[in-house]
Specification:
Elements (H helix, E strand, L loop, with lengths): L3 E8 L6 H12 L2 E12 L4 E6 L2 H14 L2 E6 L5 H17 L5 E3 L16 H5 L2 H4 L2 E2 L3 H7 L6 E4 L8 E8 L2 E9 L8 H14 L4 H17 L19
Parallel strand pairs: 1-2, 1-4, 4-5, 5-6
Antiparallel strand pairs: 2-3, 7-8, 8-9
Helix pairs in contact: 1-7, 2-3, 7-8
């Protein structure tokens, strides 16, 4: 059967990020996304104008029939929306891990939109709560990595798109030690939902049973290709082409 990825993320009505990005990126790897909405947002491809967290009880109720019916092989976490939702999601992960101790959990620690707009209620960093500790791997960009500080994260892929230069260096760290570094040619535009794409693709690759190193390699290569083939729906940030056109 096709492996399933349980996805917790916000709804972007513009279709560029959040659940819309996750569904396509997971499908492109050959897995199936089970999308649970944590927040409703008002945004376009450049700015978030408002965000409303879904009730934590409803988050849990969305997930319950999925957990009962499907064989979940990985979990992808985007914005929880608030601390109550993070606590509800953490409880779900602990329940799943009681049956599958090695269940991969991929966390994209989105602290704000690319332009700094808020994506939930209260402190985004505080809202992540126990999710940072439960994550198998966390995928911060450089500003997010700085904000996370010396927390309890065991494994990271730190993406280097915010650093200057003609190449982007992504660093895989475990217990503070760099295991591997990838270099990707810098592309000329800015993109809406690139972090969602990478995290969802990685979760799907892990759901397929790949090792962390192979999954990281393939998820990055896929994401870079989606950006290289990106398209415009309005001025500003471009949309990764997650269902890739063949070259």
């Amino acid at each position: 059967m096709t492996p399933c990825v349980l996805v917790f993320a916000g709804l972007d009505p513009g279709g560029g990020a959040g659940l819309a990005a996750d569904i396509l990126a997971v499908a492109a790897q050959g897995a199936h996304a089970l999308p649970v909405a944590t927040a409703l947002t008002c945004q376009d491809n450049n700015h978030v104008f408002a965000a409303q967290a879904v009730d934590a009880g409803l988050v849990a109720r969305q997930a319950a029939p999925l957990i009962a019916a499907f064989d979940i092989r990985a979990v992808k976490l985007g914005i929880p929306g608030n601390a109550a939702n993070a606590a509800a999601i953490a409880a779900i992960i602990r329940s799943l891990r009681a049956q599958q101790p090695a269940l991969p959990v991929v966390l994209d620690p989105v602290l704000a939109s690319g332009h700094g707009d808020a994506l939930g209620q209260g402190s985004a960093l505080a809202a992540l709560g126990d999710l940072l500790e439960l994550a198998t791997i966390v995928l911060p960009n450089l500003p997010e990595r700085a904000a996370l500080g010396e927390s309890r994260i065991k494994q990271l892929l730190v993406t280097g798109g915010h650093a200057p230069g003609d190449t982007v260096a992504n660093r895989w760290l475990q217990d503070g030690q760099e295991l591997r570094r990838w270099h990707w040619p810098r592309l000329p535009a800015t993109y809406h939902g690139s972090g969602c794409t990478l995290a969802a693709a990685l979760a799907a690759r892990l759901a397929l049973g790949e090792s962390m190193e192979i999954a990281l390699e393939r998820a990055q290569a896929y994401t870079h290709a989606t950006l290289a083939q990106s398209f415009a729906i309005a001025p500003g940030q471009r949309i990764p082409r997650r269902l890739l056109h063949p070259h």
